[in-house]
Amino acid sequence: MRIVLVGPPGAGKGTQAAFLAKNLSIPHISTGDLFRANISKGTELGRKAKAIMEAGQLVPDEITIAMAQDRMEQADAAGGFLLDGFPRNVSQAEALDAYLKAGDLKLDAVLDLEVEEDEVVKRIAGRRVCRNDSSHVFHVTYAAPKAEGVCDTCGGELYQRGDDSEETVRNRLDVYHTQTEPIIDYYKAQGLLVTIPALGEVADVTQRAMDALKK
């Protein structure tokens, strides 16, 4: 299967993408992973992206598209893939359509993880990270530490990262609504969009997505 996963920040795309890709036996292709891999390997695309990012500019669509196409052409993606973070706008979606059409391929579904905006803010703004080890993550509501502000694992101080503040989260949501949300209508017009309620346990959301794909 060839699937695109979309949804606002905080919807759990990365978590769901990993579970779905495993259940469907297809590679999980994440935009973040593509950038990290190309930069660490020193590919031509990676060098271009790194220079642009270090200059504080946004990486243009053509570089992101080229990285995604290169990854989709690898052997493990021959039988399908799950795209997470790409396409990020309508121009990228159109480029993906053109790429697939040229190979006589097509998408099977676009899964939209649906979460209310206030829930997104609650999920992200409630995160607290240990200063000693950033892999120790808690949440003031969903995974509260035993003692407020103290890491259960090592006793380190818990803090809210700057990019997890409510103001930053709402700014990220504004960018999502402006740049990425239009692809929902784009794919709905093609009859590919499947909306998945993303509230509840991770396993329950995964099962909803799997059930929807079977239909």
TrEMBL record:
Major subcellular location class: cytoplasm
Q: Which Pfam families match?
A: ADK, ADK_lid
EC number(s) reported in the record: 2.7.4.3
Which sites bind AMP?
A: T31, R36, Q57, L58, V59, G85, F86, P87, R88, Q92, R161, R172
Ranges where the record places region NMP: 30-59
| Alphabetic keyword roster | ATP-binding, Cytoplasm, Kinase, Nucleotide biosynthesis, Nucleotide-binding, Transferase
Work out whether the entry's keyword set contains Kinase. Answer: yes
Where along the chain is ATP bound? G10, A11, G12, K13, G14, T15, R127, V137, F138, G200
Which top EC class is named for this enzyme in its record? Answer: transferase
What pathway does the UniProt record associate with this protein? Purine metabolism; AMP biosynthesis via salvage pathway; AMP from ADP: step 1/1
A molecular function GO annotation: AMP kinase activity
Asked if the Swiss-Prot or TrEMBL record annotates the protein with the keyword Cytoplasm, the reply is yes
Enumerate the catalysed reactions: AMP + ATP = 2 ADP
Compartments, as annotated in UniProt = Cytoplasm
Q: Which family does it belong to?
A: Belongs to the adenylate kinase family.
* Role according to the record: Catalyzes the reversible transfer of the terminal phosphate group between ATP and AMP. Plays an important role in cellular energy homeostasis and in adenine nucleotide metabolism.
Assembly and partners are described as: Monomer.
Record text about domains: Consists of three domains, a large central CORE domain and two small peripheral domains, NMPbind and LID, which undergo movements during catalysis. The LID domain closes over the site of phosphoryl transfer upon ATP binding. Assembling and dissambling the active center during each catalytic cycle provides an effective means to prevent ATP hydrolysis.
Name the chain's protein: Adenylate kinase
Organism of origin: Streptomyces goshikiensis
